[in-house]
Amino acid sequence: MTLTIYGPPMSRAMRTLWMAHELELDFQNEYGFQEDAPVPTEALVAANPMGQVPVIDDDGFTLSESMAINIYLAKKHGKLAPVTPEDEAQTLRWSFWVMTAVEVTLLDVLFKARGLRGHEQDPEGAAAGIAELQRPFNVLNDALSDRDYLLGDVFSVADLNVASVLAWARAAGIEFAEQSHLDAWLDRCLNREAAVRARN
Hints:
By secondary structure, this protein is α+β, with helices and mostly antiparallel strands. The protein has 8 helices and 4 strands; from the N terminus they run E-H-E-H-E-E-H-H-H-H-H-H.
């Protein structure tokens, strides 16, 4: 059986590479773009007509969308997966939440803070985005006030999915001075061996 993960580590594909390392899977990593150009390869478009990463080809089964991919891999291989219906609901809740309440604004902050993706550095714009993110940051911080991980005492795909988005906060230089539980949790997640391997 062959698993191919399309997408470079410095993209949303990092989430799926992290999961593959957590599960200790044998896989191939194809960037999916033509050399020195942001043009998707034929193989990537065949796997995902949107031409976006990440997408996987798991022995002929193709799937896009990073959160769905990670939940699928966790459940298929029986590791980091939710066990109860309640845990599965919470996993879906947090995975959807981080995409809708955090990711877009956080990426905008990162681009403006560091002058990436055609943006000029815009400290005021970045600061406005950080202010907007305080509400979801506080929600996550409160959820972690009495537990080490989102589903309790054990790291799971819920943590991986959310932490993989919050990793951009570190790249943007955001400090969680008022969210100590979130800050400690994010360190625990991003310092896992599999996470370090995925980033490198």
